[in-house]
Write a structure and sequence with these properties.
By secondary structure, the chain is α/β, with parallel strands linked by helices. The chain has two domains: 168 residues, Rossmann fold (3-Layer(aba) Sandwich), CATH 3.40.50.1260; 197 residues, Phosphoglycerate kinase, N-terminal domain (Rossmann fold, 3-Layer(aba) Sandwich). It contains 15 helices and 19 strands. The chain has a six-stranded parallel beta sheet. Strands 12-10-9-17-18-19 form a six-stranded parallel beta sheet, sandwiched between helices. It has a three-stranded antiparallel beta sheet with strand order 14-13-16. A hairpin with a 2-residue loop joins strand 2 and strand 3. It starts with 17 loop residues before the first strand and ends in a 10-residue tail after the last helix.
Amino acid sequence: MQVLPRKTIHDVDVSGQTVLVRVDFNVPLDDGRVADDTRIRASLPTLNYLRERGCRLILMTHLGRPKGQAKEELRLDPVARRLEELTGWPVVKVDQVVGPQVAEAVAQLPPGGILLLENLRFDPREEEGSPELAQELAALGSLYVNDAFGTAHRAHASTAVVARFLPAVAGLLMARELEVLDRLLSDPQRPFWAIIGGAKVGDKLGVLQALVQVCDGIAVGGGMANTFLAAQGGSMGDSLVEADRLEEARAIMAAAAQRGCRFLLPTDLVAASAFAPDADKQVCPAGEVPDGWQALDVGPETVAAFGEALAEAKTVFWNGPLGVFEWPAFAEGTVAVARTLAHLEDAVVVVGGGDSAAAVVQAGVADAIDHISTGGGATLEYIEGRSLPGVEVLAVKEAGEG
């Protein structure tokens, strides 16, 4: 699937406008401070471009899952403070999403000024995709910019519906994400390999089906590998296995074989006596997990085999950890693969957000990865070929334009 090229802030005259910017500042907090500011940093090129052109910026984001209720621990004050620390720009933060207080703050905003609205999901109408909320938000500005790729798969008021009421274009981060993923699927350098991990086949069934059609090879790890191994007749002990997905797993492997796409599964696993960070562990052959034990990581033989296969790659897409990498005892496979990817000097490596992004940071190799997506779910839905509501509403660049 190739997304139609969308207009960006480079394609319109933004000078002096009051711009409603949907950012993705859904960041982890720890004791009232931002614990990881990666997503805030990713938005800075867009914000800086607009400020330099005298725009007044109204930033909108969600944080966590407050389910339509105002929750003190999910207020955006720490986010505003971190944005100020990173940039030196004064940031005005209001305690409402819309209303008289917000309108007054917008009226007082100088050129280049930044206003951060309160957590959008404090208003239940946000996730409902309410046209009324979207219209109230749109009334605050003259241009809408979506730079929140991580929420582009959500048809929420601030991601898809605001564009009914304002001219709508992509920010620089959004444009970059789409460009990278479009090239990945339509014109990758070959061999093109994908590494897919995570817990369940069911969560990524459509993604695997799509990748089989475009990849030269796929390496599968994490909990989902258990289901494929079980589908081949392996004994998986107490490992997570989706018994209702065995036929679909076999169909994916058959489709890969028919197309000539190599399909690598673990040959050994790190099994644990219990699902616990301090459980006893042992390395066992894949498909021979002892009764009462469960696979929580790929083994050293698998890491070596994956590394050997990836050495020939010119393009790699990775989504999903290969084990329970949050626990050091079961992180070795995931960290080893992250470091392998960092050393592929001749390959373009794209990491698909979420846990995979956290893993490359944990492995200390984030700077060596060509592109780390800010959107896990949005990335997967794009690869699967689904329409992204937050992208579809943006203005299309006409042929010969830009």
